[in-house]
Amino acid sequence: MMKVMMVVMMKVMCGTSSSDTGSINASAEGVSIQTVVNLVGDHQGRLRINNITCGANISKMKAQFSGTLGRVYHLLAGFLTSGMRFALNRRICPALEHAALVHVNSMLQSFPVRSEVDSYIGIDYSLLHDPVVTSRSLDLSFRGMFFELQDQNLTLVNGAVEPQLSHLDRMIYLALSEFFFDSGLFSYFQAGIFHTRITSEKMPRNLEMLLRTTYFGSLMMNPALVDSPFVLEISASSAPKTTIRTSGATVAVTAHVQVMALPRSQPAVQLSSMTMETRFNAKFSMKGKRLAMHADLRRFKIFSNKSALESLALIPLQTPLKTMLQVSVVPLINNFTKRGVRLPLPDHLDFVEDVVQYHNGFIVIGANLQPSGGLLEAEQTTEPAL
Fold first, then answer.
1. Whole-Å CA distances, 225 to 3, 199, 373
2. Quick check: 291 and 341 in contact, CB under 8 A?
3. Long-range contacts of 123-128 (CB under 8 A, 24+ apart)
């Protein structure tokens, strides 16, 4: 049952020299509105309202009149309220249809289906199929795939588990599988971003001294290298891999490390080549419409590509190299990832009361939705009059 109260100011002219001013206090009872909205994915993979079926009815209206001629108006109340009820019944559904097909579809057009993340990669949020509507939810399956801007057809095969949602205490849940993150890491790897060069000036002093001690024999064999500065070149040898468990998320990186000396006015001389295996803890958080990540180095190991004996010689370098990564490289990673990636949410809607949950193979972001000022202002300026 729904009851709507309306107050209407009334001015009635009587003859040519007098008028009556008063008001109508009208109430509507038994207002019922039934709508069926058909949602589809358009040719671009964007959610759209295809059509809306509406039925509205006001079963009863009452009116009280004020003014000098109030008694006269009460005699006509039946005719007036019947006319008002008829007019309202005819205008409710057109107003709802206009709101759905114009305002809501306009908002859904702002949905970021395929867009650039930065100068290296983009992301595809297109729908895989039409929405699935149940008695309790609206299920949408997005592609959730990153791609390199220079070669958008080179993508990673999706072998991740299908996320399953069970909680229903928030308005919206967004499940992101390991494939979502792996495709981004793969695209960055293809773009060549996982490469860094660390010179002597950026190394801790004790690390540079340790490098000179470790490769003392090679330096003494070439006098031009004795006072040469060092450089470490670190390049990922394969795309990093994400693992998500209930205990948290980790990112494993295997990289190729070269230790080189830079003699003045001569080509660089390689002193050593090694493999570095690292594992980062990844903590995800929401910043507005964006999902950000903070990395923390947890596991670090280096070994020689040539022999076990050389791997033993590298043991003293383990701790200094790990410290250098924590001081020099990890802050660069976090500064890069703190901006985050925009999630598939239309403009003028914001996440509030969000929470990030970790499951085996995927994370779930639960949140409530709140209209922003832009949407409210658009509704107020374009809403059709009843």
1. 90, 15, 64
2. yes
3. 123/147, 123/184, 123/341, 124/45, 125/45, 125/344, 126/41, 126/44, 126/45, 126/46, 127/41, 127/45, 127/46, 127/47, 128/45
Query: Whose CA is closest to 67, among 141, 10, 129?
Result: 10
Give the predicted TM-score (pTM) of the model: 0.75
3-state per-residue secondary structure call for 278-318: EEEEEEEEEECCEEEEEEEEEEEEEEECCCHHHHHHCHHHH
Tokens at 256, concatenated? 């190729």
Neighbours of 225 (CB within 10 A): 20
**For 268-292, how does the pLDDT look when each residue is reduced to its tens digit (9 = 90+)?**
888 888 999 999 999 999 888 889 9
What CA–CA distances, in Å, run from 77 to 61, 70, 71, 86, 202?
10, 10, 10, 14, 88
DSSP state of 191: T
- Contact 234/278 with Cβ under 8 angstroms? no
> Cα–Cα distance between 60 and 287 in angstroms, integer?
49
